[in-house]
Amino acid sequence: MSIVIVLGIPLLLALGSLFVRKERLFGVINCLGYFIVLCASIVLFNQTVFAGHIRAFFDFIYLDLLSAVFIVVIAVVAFASALYSIAYIKKDIQQKIISPGKERFYYLLFNLFCFSMFCVPAMNNLGMLWVAIEMTTLISAFLVGFYNSKESVEAAWKYIIICSVGIIFALLGTILFSYAFSISGLSKSLNWSDMLPVAQVLNKNILKIAFIFILVGYGTKAGLAPMHTWLPDAHSQAVAPISALLSGVLLKTAIYAILRFGIIIIKSGEFAYFSHLMILFGVISLVISSGFILVQKDLKRLLAYSSIEHVGIISIGFGLGSPLAIGGAILHVFNHAVTKSLMFFGAGNIVSAYKKHNMNSIRGVIKVLPFTGIRVLLGVFALTGFPQFSIFISEIMIILAAFTNGSYLIAALLLLFLAVIFGAFIYHFGKMLFGNHPKDAVTQGEPFSGKLAFLFLLFLICGLGVVLIFKYKDLLWLAQRLLQG
Amino acid sequence: MQGIILFVLLVSTYLMVIAKRTSALIRSFRYQSLCLFVITFSIALTQREPELYIVAGLLFILKVLLIPYLLYRIIRRIKVSEDLGLFINPQLSLLWALAFTYLSWIFASYIVSANNTILTGTLAIAFFVVSAGMFLMVFRMTALSQIIGLLVMENGLFLLASTVSGGMPFFVEIAIFFDVFVSVLIMGFFVYRINKLFTHIDVNKLSRLKG
Amino acid sequence: MIILQIILFILAAPLLSGLITKLKNNLRMRKGQSVFQPYYNLAKLFLKDEVISETASWIFRITPCVVLSSTLVAAILIPVFIFSSSVHQMGDFFALVFILALARFFLALSALDTGSSFGGMGASREMFISSLVEPALCMVILSVGLQFGSTDISVFSGAHAITVSSVVAAAALFLIILAETSRIPVDNQETHLELTMVHEAMVLEYSGRSLALIEMASYIKQMIFFFLIAQLVFPIGKPIGTFCQIIFWVLWYLMRLGIIAIIVALVEVTMAKMRLFRVADFLGFAFVLGIVATVCAILGV
Amino acid sequence: MLNLLAKNLFLFDPLSLFFLAVIFIVSLPSLVYSFGYLKGEYSFAKIILAQILLFAFVLSMALVVSVSNCLIFLIFWEIMSLISYFLVVFDTKNARSIQAGLIYIVMTHIGTAFIIAAFMILYNHTHSFDFLAIKNACKILPSGTKDIIFLLFLIGFGTKAGIVPLHIWLPYAHPQAPSHISSIMSGVMIKTAIYGLIRFVISILGVNSSWWGVLIMILAVISCLVGIIYALMEHDIKRLLAYSSVENIGIILLGVGLAMFFISLNLPYLAVFSLIAGLYHLINHAIFKGLLFLCAGSVYKATGTRHIEKLGGLIKKMPQTAVYFLFGAMAISALPPLNGFVSEWLTLQAFFLGAFNVAGGSKIFLGICAAMLALTGGLAAACFVKVFGLTFLAKPRSHYAESAKEVALSMRIGMLILVVLIVIFGLAAALIIKLLAKVAGSVLGIDIGAMSFSLNNLTLSPQIAKSVYLSIPALALWLIVFGIISFVIYRIFGKAKSVISKTWDCGYYKFDSRNEYTATAFSKPFRIAFSFFLLPYRKTQKIRESFYHIKSFTYETHTTKVIKKYIYDPVLTLVFKTAKFMRRMQPGSIHLYLGYVFVTLLLLIIFMRQF
To answer: Fewer CB atoms near the end CB (10 Å): N or C, chain B?
Structure first.
């Protein structure tokens, strides 16, 4: 039942956004809607934890623990960005960047985007999974190209072309999966729930090739290294709440898709193959993103590259495969989504206050926007893995898994690049946050809803950081359950 | 009979690869979709599944009639030069196409167990069509060529799906068609926006976002 | 007994310095001043007025007392008459070195206090030389310690066989003395030429009674070092036996210091003053000598 | 398995109690001092923030030394560095503090990465994060991994302690923080790294190969010499004190390294003795370095500048701060009656006793280390004569010094407490050594009943060495007695008249503050003596009115920071060059991006068999 709420409400809100005249009122409704969605997803999570998995809507929707976790992540970030977008859009209208009419269009797209993202983890049929991801790409293309400037159109075009190419390769992989499935003489349906028990029987060779296509296809969407080129452009040009959604959650849905196929590969006994590939891509994205972060000049692109870095860490986590690593990776998915959206909200505030993306000309943020300044400072320390925050816990779990797994090289690489990226972040943000601010910038007050979004996310990061140290046991149990699917 | 149609499909893809002007490109895309329609129709006949008929019909309406019409409209509306802006000249691209046909044939034989050659043949052509689509996107400058490249890749996939595993579940096919159509619409819309902002649709010049 | 030793030191020290200057002049074929000239100087200084510069702070005034008191404390550490009494429990060879460092610390501060460039120059050179002396002195102490079991001074005050390592150690100590008591190769005592003077530059601002006290302290320091070398090269036990033996013991006791004075005078006459920055190599040589002494001590030679 | 809810989360053994004592001894006076110090400097809100951060900083340090679980230790360790970063960057206006904060946090973070790696390897072998469990499991650890873990710990804690090759951040970070904070940082925070080394290497890991101790001693000697030479060349008081912290950390590590050396040669009593020497110097350094930083802070508050060459003659304007600074300077240059002398004497004595009981070759090594320690002692004395002489004595050199006034009462009380502590720790040396013996015994796991420790007759009974005597109270007594005697001689014998007049200026009429010796001049002999290491740069220029008349003369000199120039800068330029090269990967053309996707696909298919 709760899955109907989770999927239904965004659709309702999408329709609602067409009719409601007053933007201010609609913003609040939007937040309420997503708050309900958040509660529904938590209820859903409890159900799947105990009930194993839920089927609904004559077998089209299949929810197990893995998808429930991702739905919760999407719900949290969606709620936060809904909260934030009220303030952000109002400020945009005041600054005449977008015309009032476009705001209704914005909310329509926002809700459709969330709806399509909620569909991805819910789908049982792998074909429908592909369709849902294609939907998310198409809708978010509009959101990336929302501002009518040359850069945003260019970013939208690159986003839509590269992601469509990626997704078509993923479709190729899905077809090869169904081909392997049909050779072994079983029923033709692409339902994941049917494929799983049969995994051992399938032809290993075709599965391996199919998984390559899946990995490259959905990897493009997830922003894994060589195919990440669209990510910095899209995230730096999109509207701030949307880029939070994009990098916080959209990448995770693609990772979810890779995981769905990964579990089949693991079940068919090819674990070594799966882990080598994932670790390879993880390390490459870590290397490339640390290079770019060091010499980055644009604030939002910096955060985009740090998303690539964290996606790399997550894929290394899943690649390592031990329950500790899987637990760490899942936790990292949640932590990164929350922390990254906090940082993007902060970046949004800074860019709209300073009207410049270039970091060298942004100085003294703490004096100009005291509230955002302090939150961004804490966010930076959270993002780079300082102890009090939750990302540190998940990173330590992954590194610990790498050590106990005996792969010292990967652990050493992880530690090295985390340190490099930490240095780069402090270098960039240190200069921006402190220092004496330019003459004209005056300390500006900030809207209440923006502050609410910040506090909600900050509470999550810090609270989780502390709670997790003690709740360690059942996180591992959860990770075990996850692998059975 | 199927062999001949496959051969015609292959020829239309070669035509596409060497095309210099956009309208030639769209015309050969139309031929390719026509061959695809004939193949799916023949499979539908052999396997007597009602759904395949609907899918073939849908394919015909969309791929042969509607989308080319839309593309022609775009060309007329934005009144931009017909030149496709080739990175590498047609002779080299033909050479490239031949190489990739051979490569996809090896790849197909690796996948399919050696006995039935027809299946390997169709698989090889499907892979080649996909790589031809990719070629169009990478080595052509205009935005339109990238849209058509995408459609060609999608055609290749559809060929692979229908021949190899007798097509995916019906509902999924419909959803994929709908998706392809929507994505073409959105890309067309973006092409208009690019043209309005940049007064040209040469995607290669779009490089303001660096580093 | 301690008072006896203090009086001995206060009285005998200037005599030693007078002896050296007398020897130097004789070697230069001059008649030179009388051996007791330092006593006359001290007496003269005590009677003269004292001029204190206005920029000087209270450090300038207390330095003479601190310098003299620390030198005297260093003096009572040396077991001239008392061999093992409660006094020795106060410190060992190292304590001696550090107490002399205390004196030097305050002297340098007072030199800087008057604000004249002579004082600054003197202080900087003095600290430079003394910091380079430390490692050599430490090696000497190590070699002596290795030989006699511990770094306590009373340990090697008894009669013991002359070994190669103690002789080499004595040579190293001799070089150190040339640096510490501002003898010719390192620093010239008599001159007031700012290019060459080190110790004199520091006490330039002093006059009258405070200068007297500082002079007395430097004589005592010289005596301490001479005594250490003497003990190393000509070891001597406790005075025992009949009365004439005691007299013979006392005579021999003072004769040793005389011999060392002669050697110092000889060195002063023959050598010319070295440039300040070559003092580093000079003391490096002393350090190497110290290492050689330690190696001999280890080998038990 | 990993049970983080271990009841005994905290463990208060003598070592932790000792370090807690060190933390609180230095933090309380700094707290008292901070009220006066912060009053004029910052707005009221910032003062509150400063006090909260100070309290959190001290709390986190206290927790670091008292926690018994590796993970929690790591967390508090990072929180400590985080808060100290905020404190270093506290004065956000000047750009230097941002750069200092950056270097500081990056270096400490890299250090922590090494510590994390070491903990992980330990966890790998012992499957637990609890200190005691690890300690038992470490006995059967293969010696190869023990060496790796030791090296990781050494680098990790070395960065935080400021051992030479890794000390780059210290002279930047400490001067930037507010003075009472840099006194805590220099006095105590560096010691938490020493606590880490002692706790993890000596008591948990267990020393079994002798090259560990030798390596630490070599590093310590280098840090001593490099630290003090740079301190001599430095003209900014607080940076000078930071460099002298590097030197004193070297001395402490000499003691600790010696203890490790003796453990590996299983001479337990000598190990305990040298650890006592190390710990004693640790607490002494905490006290007198804290005092010196507080005095530097009050000089900064009174005059507004930290540059020695602009100060002078402050003893007349700030008499009490001058006296406190004098006490601090005497203590740090190890002059007899005060505590610095005791710990330096103990370290030297540890070297000598070691030299007696150790086989041939290492006798020379220990001797040379002792000699280098003595050299550092001498140089330290020279350095602090320079600092005290130039800041406080003679005439004021600039308007900063003229306008100086005595600082607020709370600041003076803070300093007074530390001076009293210096004297107490000097005189009560015998008592304190007994306490430290218990601490060292508990760390090394040796019962110290058999050793008699009264400093007066320091007889290490089982060792074959004659007894050595040192009693500070007797020394102080005799110094005072003879001081009075010499004062009496001074009073009675000569004529009582003394005349106040101008300093002797060779008869010239013009005598002003420019004649005084400056810091550069004072350190010139040292600069030339150590020029092989400092590579001094010297440029003189004659500004001529005409060919014959020289109007003025410019003289410019500075020393090159060798380590920074030849190790850190090349690495940084390399990293940034590769990053710039990588940036060219994203030139903006969509065709290239599609090419990337296609090529990765092809490569994966071709090399599929390898995975």
So the answer is: N
